[in-house]
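The data are set out underneath:

___
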Amino acid sequence: MAISNKERVGRALEQLGSALEPFVEEVLQPHVPAGLDWTAILKAKDGDGRDGRDYDPADVQIQLRAVTERLGALGFPFGERLSRGEQNLAGEMREVRNRWAHDPRPFSADDTYRALDTCERLLRAIGAPSEADSVRRMRADAQRATYAEETRRDTRAAVSAMPDLADAELTPWRDVLSPHPDIAAGDFARAEFAADLHQVATGEASPEYGDPIQFFQRTYLTEGLKTLLTMSAKRISGDPNAQSVINLQTTFGGGKTHSMLAAWHLFSGQPLDDYPQQVQDVLGAESAGTVARSVKRVAIVGNEMAPGQSTTKADGTVLNTVWGELAWQLGGADGYALVAEADRTGTNPGEALRTLIARHSPALILIDEWVAYARGLYGRDDLVGGTFDTQFTFAQQLTAAVQSVPGALLLVSIPASDVRFDEEVAAPTGSDLEIGGANGRAALQRLQHVVSRVAHNWTPASSGESFEIVRRRLFTEPDAEGRRKIDATVRRFADYYRNQTGELPPETRQVEYEARLRAAYPIHPELFDRLYADWSALERFQRTRGVLRMMSAVVHSLHASGDDAPLIMPGSMPLDDPAVRDEVTAYLDDAWRSIIETDIDGENAAPLLIDKERPLFGRRALTRRIARALFLGSAATLDSGHKGIERQRVFLGVAMPGDSIGNFGSALQMLSDRATYLYSEGTRFWYDRQPSVNRMVTERAQALDIEDVYAKAESLLGNAVGTAPEFADPVIAPKATSDVPEAESVRLVVLHPRHAFAAKGKDSPGWRFADELFRHRGSAARQNANTLVMLGADQNRWNEVEEALRTHMAWADIAAGVRDLDLTQSQAEHARRRESETRAVVDQRLASAWIWAAFPEQTDGSQPPSLTTMKVEGDDRRLAVRAGLRLGRDDVVYTNTSPLALWLVFNGHLRSRWNRGYLSVGELWQYHLQYPYMPRLRDRRVLEDAIRSVMTDAGWSERGFALADDYDEETGDFIGLRIPFEAASAGSIDDSTLLVAPRLAEEQLARERAAAVAQPATDSGRDLPSASGNGAGSAAGAAGLPPVPAPDPAAPRIPDVRFEGEVDLLPGKDLRAQLIELVDEVLVHLQTADPDVLEIRLSVAADKMTGFDAGTVRTVSENARQLRLAPGRFTEG
């Protein structure tokens, strides 16, 4: 059995370890105290082994450490025995050992050669020539294997070559189980797997059928076959209670003749201990004498005898009937003499038959294809073989005679068939071939009636046993190492299947399927299932025999081409090999040859072209393998009532470790769109002999004008955008920069599909258009550049969208023109279904194509703005929502801001303007609109909300501002100054509202307070006007100090005109109850009081050091969006 490169390296390390142990001991042992071995030096170096290492002197890793490391005071003690170059060899082998032990990647041919060469050189350096020679032979074997592999690969046709499907952790099947020599060499004839009793009996069969020992070595003993052998041995031994007549009644190709051969070879006279152990175990020592004794054997094969012709034997005896043949095989001319008259006259031998059998017992009588002989007598009375009626009278006499003679055993093969049909109802096709029409059915019915009364009905192999029969015939038995590798492959496949939820049949995730993988290895159970369940129903396909024929061609082809896959899958079927294609199509109509050439495995077949166009698919020949699996699973079902194969089963016939099953759907979809003969309905797919409308769809799709495709994409984009809190109304697919008006809120400009972005670089239509868009509006310069966010398609993904759009539009056109195109009802339904299915594909691809957000950025006012792109992907199909989530999270668009953020802007980009001490809201908003170095606020409301919130900002004096209505240039005071915590509210905010530096606001407040204190009060206690002359609007009045001037005594003050309140809820308590109590006890009362103004705001802030889980994030974000919480999103910490 072939070994891997890693195994070769491992064996070389074993040779190195056995040679290094005495060499290292010789050098280091003198330096070690008595009673200790040399590893004590390494233990001391490592701190007395406190890290729990194992110090085994036979471990090659420990030995190489000793040779290559400085050993404390000893230094490098091997320097005297090894040159520097030779010590480097040891260092290299240490790296090889570490890679061998810890790196799962396979060793390449070059790496293996280098490792073995280094190992050989080191062995010779330490004086180990015997081990060095052993490693040299390994190196030579590795080179030969490499050359052979390269030769195999060179023989593959460049066009149709399959890529390597090897897995780093799995051994290719052909390196675990070798095919039998005849299979590997392709040295088998088409009919070889049809066991022929006549050839075996006459000594003309090949050794694997004609030699008893070879026959049993390649035969898997099913439970039915074990029972047959046991019953046969008992009957031949003379046991009167053993069954004397056994009816081998199975389906066409079910193993009847093979079972007869097993009985024939069992009584060939060979000693029992010459047979394989499995035969000895079944029969036991008590049957040794029976097996070795002389037993008369008779083999009559009905289709080797002609009812109307005589046969002359070597001794001159002329035979006419079945009973004449039986008598001659039992006793030669003497035996024939007992029935000679009956043979010449074509009449039954009567009592002479019992005398004949008794005289020549023990006897084994095998009659195969009896129906084939008897149907030739139907309706004739002029044949030497007798009449139809006498044939079944003989059958009755024969069964009675065998029953009466201990030691006589009769095995009869009768095809399994339902005889309850007439000329109006067709017989099952497989059995009808063997039965042979109406005459055969009549013969079968009569023969069943006679034999079934006395015969034991033999049970054929189960489906699981059939797998083993095929495997045993095609492959050698695995050794212990092979079984380990089989287990590794099976476990890997089972784990792979359990991780693929939804795309594969549910049973693949069960423990039972793992057992099926192991039993069928190296053939995948799905391949067996399709052959036994679907192909066995075909007229010319003979169950196990047909499976053997087909699989022998497949195994030979794959083995010769160097197939690296871990299993032989339905997708592995090499239909590009003429021998395999001929074997497969032999059971199908001739039309399938052109279908295979066009749609499955021809040089220019659709799957190969798709794989060439899509390197992601081509690296694993994905589309080609899917087409093969789909063909194997559907071709045999075309004329059945349930044609086709389920999508999950197609994928099961392809999926193996190393495949990304997420690509399977796309590959199957592309194949469905482009194949000429492929149909689908729901989740079922099949190839048909009649072309589908796919060809028409392909032609119409290719003929569509690109402008029509663009127009369709534009209409669909409008529905795909959606709404998001980060953007105002979107602009869809502008064709020119003038189509995007100036705005005072951030707008998402969804670019036209012709303006797509490349993944890298700035040389793309999308980049150029977006760059021009933020700079110009038509011929004029754009003013509000900081309100633009563009979203464009990825060029590669747009290509996929365009392809899907063309296909959908073509299907829609065909579905709308069913009558004009004269489509059948089935084709019309198919067209309507494909129209719906392709629309879903378009929607999905459209949503995933627009992923490039582009927006202007500017570091500061001294630098020109430039375009920046950002990839915005996600699960949400709504373009605006997906873009908004990413851009909001990355602070590209702000849906809220704070006084602190404004203060930072004032002291950063606007420092020169802020130095004068105040800035108007209108001027600030214009900065935000026009300059990309400013934060990109969704709209003016975001700015105004931040300005109002400064009134409750405790840090306003250090990192904030005050508000004012105007500024008096003459006095230097601010009119209508409103200071946080001093004024009741922010008041009305418009373009003229001023944001005032805290220092100036506090200075004015101090002046007003000082003036108020210095101004004497009137006798009536009325307050006098303040020194600033600002009246009631002054900061002092707002602070609650004696207002300046005092209110008019005639105007009474109105009590209780305003209510304000804040409360911190207790997060650890019942939030719902707290909120209900707040609403019932406070808010409802305020609401029913009919206030002029009622503002209620809820602020929520939640932090978690480890981050919130995905479920919470998804639920809260979606609900916050629905409830219009702003910004309502999670941010990074």
Remarks:
- Confidence is low (pLDDT under 50) at residues 155-159, 417-433, 1018-1051.
